[in-house]
Amino acid sequence: MTDLSFEQATGYGICRFRAMASPCEILVDADDEPVARRLAGLARDEALRVERKFSRYRDDNIVHRINGAHGAPVEVDDETAALLDYADAC
Protein backbone atom coordinates (compact mmCIF):
# COMPACT_ATOMS: atom_id res chain seq x y z
CA MET A 1 0.00 0.00 0.00
CA THR A 2 1.32 3.41 -0.88
CA ASP A 3 1.76 5.94 1.91
CA LEU A 4 -0.75 8.73 2.30
CA SER A 5 0.55 12.09 3.46
CA PHE A 6 -1.81 14.65 4.89
CA GLU A 7 -1.62 18.41 5.25
CA GLN A 8 -4.35 20.42 6.96
CA ALA A 9 -5.27 23.67 5.22
CA THR A 10 -7.95 26.16 6.19
CA GLY A 11 -11.24 24.35 5.62
CA TYR A 12 -9.84 21.38 3.74
CA GLY A 13 -7.21 18.67 3.77
CA ILE A 14 -4.55 17.97 1.17
CA CYS A 15 -3.74 14.29 0.78
CA ARG A 16 -0.92 12.99 -1.39
CA PHE A 17 0.05 9.51 -2.54
CA ARG A 18 1.49 7.75 -5.57
CA ALA A 19 -0.48 5.65 -8.04
CA MET A 20 -0.11 4.75 -11.71
CA ALA A 21 3.54 5.87 -11.63
CA SER A 22 2.46 9.42 -10.81
CA PRO A 23 2.08 11.71 -7.83
CA CYS A 24 -1.58 12.10 -6.87
CA GLU A 25 -3.21 14.79 -4.77
CA ILE A 26 -6.72 14.93 -3.35
CA LEU A 27 -8.33 17.97 -1.77
CA VAL A 28 -10.87 16.91 0.84
CA ASP A 29 -13.53 19.42 1.85
CA ALA A 30 -13.42 18.67 5.58
CA ASP A 31 -12.16 20.49 8.67
CA ASP A 32 -12.04 17.23 10.63
CA GLU A 33 -8.60 15.68 10.01
CA PRO A 34 -9.56 12.07 10.86
CA VAL A 35 -12.53 12.28 8.47
CA ALA A 36 -10.38 13.84 5.74
CA ARG A 37 -7.72 11.14 6.15
CA ARG A 38 -10.35 8.37 6.02
CA LEU A 39 -11.96 9.79 2.87
CA ALA A 40 -8.61 10.30 1.19
CA GLY A 41 -7.64 6.75 2.12
CA LEU A 42 -10.77 5.44 0.41
CA ALA A 43 -9.96 7.43 -2.73
CA ARG A 44 -6.34 6.22 -2.70
CA ASP A 45 -7.48 2.62 -2.25
CA GLU A 46 -9.80 2.95 -5.25
CA ALA A 47 -7.01 4.40 -7.41
CA LEU A 48 -4.77 1.49 -6.44
CA ARG A 49 -7.55 -1.01 -7.17
CA VAL A 50 -7.99 0.45 -10.66
CA GLU A 51 -4.23 0.38 -11.16
CA ARG A 52 -4.04 -3.31 -10.18
CA LYS A 53 -6.96 -4.23 -12.41
CA PHE A 54 -6.08 -2.29 -15.55
CA SER A 55 -2.32 -1.77 -15.54
CA ARG A 56 -0.63 -2.99 -18.70
CA TYR A 57 2.54 -3.60 -16.69
CA ARG A 58 1.08 -6.49 -14.65
CA ASP A 59 0.64 -10.09 -15.72
CA ASP A 60 -2.17 -10.94 -13.31
CA ASN A 61 -5.10 -8.90 -14.58
CA ILE A 62 -7.69 -8.59 -17.35
CA VAL A 63 -5.50 -6.39 -19.53
CA HIS A 64 -2.82 -9.09 -19.62
CA ARG A 65 -5.43 -11.72 -20.50
CA ILE A 66 -6.84 -9.58 -23.32
CA ASN A 67 -3.39 -8.75 -24.71
CA GLY A 68 -2.31 -12.39 -24.49
CA ALA A 69 -5.41 -13.68 -26.28
CA HIS A 70 -4.08 -12.59 -29.69
CA GLY A 71 -7.53 -11.60 -30.93
CA ALA A 72 -9.43 -14.52 -29.42
CA PRO A 73 -12.54 -13.63 -27.39
CA VAL A 74 -11.98 -12.98 -23.69
CA GLU A 75 -14.82 -12.96 -21.18
CA VAL A 76 -14.72 -9.79 -19.08
CA ASP A 77 -16.55 -8.57 -15.99
CA ASP A 78 -19.20 -5.81 -16.06
CA GLU A 79 -16.78 -3.03 -15.09
CA THR A 80 -14.33 -3.92 -17.87
CA ALA A 81 -17.16 -4.30 -20.40
CA ALA A 82 -18.50 -0.85 -19.51
CA LEU A 83 -15.03 0.67 -19.85
CA LEU A 84 -14.50 -0.96 -23.25
CA ASP A 85 -17.98 0.18 -24.40
CA TYR A 86 -17.17 3.73 -23.31
CA ALA A 87 -13.81 3.64 -25.12
CA ASP A 88 -15.59 2.42 -28.25
CA ALA A 89 -18.11 5.25 -28.00
CA CYS A 90 -15.32 7.80 -27.67
Beta-strand content estimate: 15-25%
Largest sheet: 3 strands, antiparallel
Radius of gyration: 17 Å
Low-confidence stretches: none
Structurally, the number of domains stands at 2
Shape: elongated
Q: What is the helix tally?
A: 3
Mean pLDDT: 92
Helices and strands: which structural class? alpha+beta
Distance between the termini: 33 Å
Q: Write out the strand line-up for the largest beta sheet, numbering strands in chain order.
A: 1-2-3
Q: What is the element string, with H for helices and E for strands?
A: EEEHHH
Helix content: 40-55%
| DSSP, total strands | 3
Walk me through this protein's architecture.
This protein is α+β, with helices and mostly antiparallel strands and 90 residues long. It folds into two domains: 54 residues, no CATH class; 32 residues, no CATH class. It is 46% helix and 22% strand. It has three helices and three strands. Strands 1-2-3 form a three-stranded antiparallel β-sheet, covered by helices on one side. The two termini are 33 Å apart. The mean pLDDT is 92.
